[in-house]
Amino acid sequence: MVFNYIIIYLFVLIGMLALFIYQFRRINALSKRLKTRVLINGTRGKSSTTRLITAGLKADASNIVLGKTTGTQAMWILPNDDEVFVKRHSSPNIKEMAEGLRLAKKLNANTYVAECMAVGPQYQDAVQRYYMHSDIVAITNIRPDHEDEMGAGLLAIAAAIALSIPENAIIVTTAEAKELLMQVCKNPTDAYRIADAQLGESYKDRFKEPVIPINLAIALTACKELGISHEAALAKMIAAPMDPGNLQLKNLHLNGKDIDFVGAFAANDYVSTLMLAEMYKPAGCAENTFKIIWLHARTDRKQRTVELCKHLPAIQPDIVLISEDTEFAKREWLKHAPELSLRATPSIHFMDASSSSGLEQALGQIIADLPVSIERIWLFGAGNTKRITTQIVGEAEICQKLSWV
Q: In the chain, which residues fall in CATH 3.40.1190.10?
């Protein structure tokens, strides 16, 4: 009897092993049929960079390009420039990478540009080993985030990201990221192509929407590596739509006051958030500009809230608006803000994250209490909205109440 169970167990085990080998070989064949495979990895800016590279590579008519983003809204960017939502019936899974390979074959695409959706080291390795076999890996940056899964400290994060780099791939990245990667992976020095932020600075004003210069530089460098000139790639990049999670810069008008809104919700980590705050701070930090931080504290991202509450007081806001996990964020904020030399200790306001009315009501009350001498309001959105940006400040709702310029 026991012997029979052992035989059945062995047959099941052999069957599972055979199925794994079959699927591995099939996926491997789908990947190898492609002319070019580009993986975009890093802490921030992956979706935007993926879109830029996908568009830029289409400047060469011989490239039939399929792109895939994973950020605010996971999308397939088809060779004809149409976009289709990635359909999910559960949580995101790296098996979507295989779905992309199958879709590429169906569409007769010969180039696959994919944002890395892996976080943990074992999944980073699986993306490279089983799915992508990348020719080029573009790494936007290495910053503190997801440390519970990737490991504590920048070297641990770099080591996790490095697992997504095949041994013979070209690595397009920044000088800062290269220094970290060189300490944790065995790719030779000549595998690196260093993107210069000044390249992005020189072209960013051609775009209608804001673009991060270093992300643009990385995209242009990757396209150049694949034989496409900066000008040819730029023409396609400029014409392509930006990612839904892209930085938002809007001018609002409410109760007679001008509001400069900087929506940096996709930044997530405090380093990126502070960088964007510095880039888009009020001109000259004029005294007649009232600074407001809108911190969206996601209940499922408490560590991010802790880090943001620790570092955002450096912006020296006059008011802090908190949405979603309000009590937790208030406690964390008050641990740090009172110790700092601010021009005014920030007042804490709660607001409803479920609709635009919460934001409008909070801003309306603040504006009503402001002195006449305040001419402008700088509203800086931080945290991570998990798609509620469009719900709260998107065209569907708040545009009916606030006028946008």
A: 30-239
Asked whether 297 and 383 are in contact (CB, 8 A), the reply is: yes
Q: Is the pLDDT of residue 8 over 80?
A: no
Q: Residues 245, 45: contact at Cβ < 8 Å? A: no
Q: What is the pLDDT of residues 333-363, one digit of tens each?
A: 888 876 554 445 567 777 776 666 777 788 8
Check whether 391 has a pLDDT greater than 50.
Answer: no
pLDDT for the residue 390 = 46
Q: CATH 3.90.190.20 region(s) of the chain?
A: 248-404
Tell me the whole-structure pTM to 2 decimals.
Answer: 0.79
Q: Nearest-CA neighbor of 235 among 252, 223, 247, 253?
A: 223
What pLDDT is attached to residue 244? 75
Tell me how far apart the 2 most distant CA atoms of the chain are, in Å: 90
For domain 248-404, is the CATH number 1.10.10.10? Answer: no
Q: What confidence score (pLDDT) does residue 257 get?
A: 82
The reply to whether CATH 3.60.20.30 applies to domain 30-239 is: no
Q: What is the pLDDT of residue 355?
A: 62
Instruction: Write the secondary structure of the chain as one string of H (helix), E (strand) and C (coil).
Output: CHHHHHHHHHHHHHHHHHHHHHHHHHHHHHHHCCCEEEEEECCCCHHHHHHHHHHHHCCCCCCCEEEEECCCCCEEECCCCCEEECCCCCCCCCCHHHHHHHHHHHCCCCEEEEECCCCCHHHHHHHHHHHHCCCEEEECCCCCCCHHHHCCCHHHHHHHHHCCCCCCCEEEECHHHHHHHHHHCCCCHHHEEECCHHHHHHHHHHCCCCCCHHHHHHHHHHHHHCCCCHHHHHHHHHHCCCCCCCCEEEEEEECCEEEEEEECCCCCCHHHHHHHHHHCCCHHHCCCEEEEEEEEECCCCHHHHHHHHHHHHHHCCCEEEEEECHHHHHHHHHHHHHHCCCCCCCEEEEECCCCHHHHHHHHHHHHHHCCCCCCEEEEEEEECCCCHHHHHHCCCCHHHCCEEC
pLDDT in tens, 212-269: 999 999 999 999 999 999 999 999 999 998 887 777 888 888 888 888 888 888 777 8
Residue 25: per-residue pLDDT: 67
